[in-house]
Write a structure and sequence with these properties.
Length: 279
């Protein structure tokens, strides 16, 4: 019987040793598992942001003037924005609520024409709870960079604004500079005219030609209400005075109304040069 007792004692000690060994490594294992889960969640959020959010908030979340605010910005992470709207919860709760329920009206002090849609299925949107969580994780992943670099804030250009005279003589345009401006937070054109159908598409499709060809045709159509007499004037007009003529099927006021004060003649020339390269 003694050897039975000894064997039982040895088995117990062996089990204690095994569980002790596992316990020592459990914290490291769980930490590695958590890091891997967080990384996958951020990657999923990045894909969702690319699909659903970049057209309004910009490719890097730095916002598009006249379309949507920056979310890769220091004021979101240092508490200033939450304090401004009187939100006393955590940033995670704030992001979850805004993404899930959307914003039927813009925040106080803003005048963005686009309203934030509801994204969570609980509010009639298309995304599951885990997808909302992934988007929140992706946005929060910007915190260190936003606070360290101050965020990439869209700003007004240096130089004389072009104004609203569509007959102004434009300098030679650079299509590469125009493409960069169209895709930037300052220009923001690609969000509505290339990445989404918020405004008339710049590129041609099927039997519909590109914007430069359509501009030449548009000024001769009977429903045209602007004052342009050339394709270039029409494109200038569409940028600096967008409500003079609104393409049928689109609403007035969606296009930012202050490009005449925000863009220089060179920048407008660059944008037009870029448009003219599109088939």
């Amino acid at each position: 019987m003694r050897w039975h007792i000894a064997l039982g004692t040895l088995s117990v000690l062996l089990l204690v040793a095994v569980f002790g060994y596992l316990a020592v490594g459990e914290q490291t294992r769980m930490q590695a598992f958590t890091e891997a889960f967080d990384a996958r969640q951020i990657e999923t959020g990045a894909t969702l942001f690319e699909t659903h959010c970049r057209t309004c908030h910009g490719p890097q979340g730095t916002g598009i003037i006249g379309v949507a605010p920056a979310i890769n910005a220091p004021d979101l992470f240092n508490g200033e924005r939450l304090a401004a709207v009187g939100f006393s919860g955590t940033l995670t709760d704030y992001l979850d609520g805004v993404i899930s329920a959307g914003r039927p009206v813009p925040s106080a002090g803003t005048s963005y024409p686009q309203r934030m849609p509801t994204w969570a299925q609980a509010y009639g949107g298309p995304l599951r709870t885990d997808q909302i969580n992934s988007l929140v994780a992706f946005i929060e992943n910007w915190e260190d960079r936003a606070l360290a670099e101050g965020g990439a804030v869209a700003s007004a250009p240096s130089g004389q604004p072009i104004g609203t005279d569509i007959t102004v003589s434009l300098p030679a345009g650079d299509p590469e500079q125009g493409a960069a401006l169209a895709q930037s937070a300052q220009g923001g054109c690609s969000a509505c005219h290339e990445l989404a159908a918020v405004g008339p598409a710049w590129a041609g499709s099927g039997e519909m030609p590109g914007i430069a060809t359509r501009a030449a045709e548009r000024i001769n159509e009977t429903d045209y209400t602007g004052s342009a007499t050339t394709a270039q004037q029409y494109l200038v007009e569409s940028i600096v005075a967008p409500n003079v003529f609104v393409v049928p099927g689109y609403g007035s006021g969606i296009m930012p109304q202050d490009y005449a004060q925000r863009l220089t003649a060179q920048q407008v020339a660059d944008l037009i040069a870029y448009m003219e390269t599109l088939p």
